[in-house]
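Quick one:
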Amino acid sequence: MTSPKILLVEDDNAIRTMLHKVLQKEGFQDVDGAATQKQALTFATRIPMISSFLT
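Output:
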């Protein structure tokens, strides 16, 4: 079974980087980050599974 896609939304780069590393260490390989909700929505609309929930 593959790990789920995770999108971190955190405006603090250091915290976002730390969370990314912790999640990867725990086995989550598909982790991305965004600094703002607007960036997260822009990113999420490129992923078919997520964008279907937004409409």
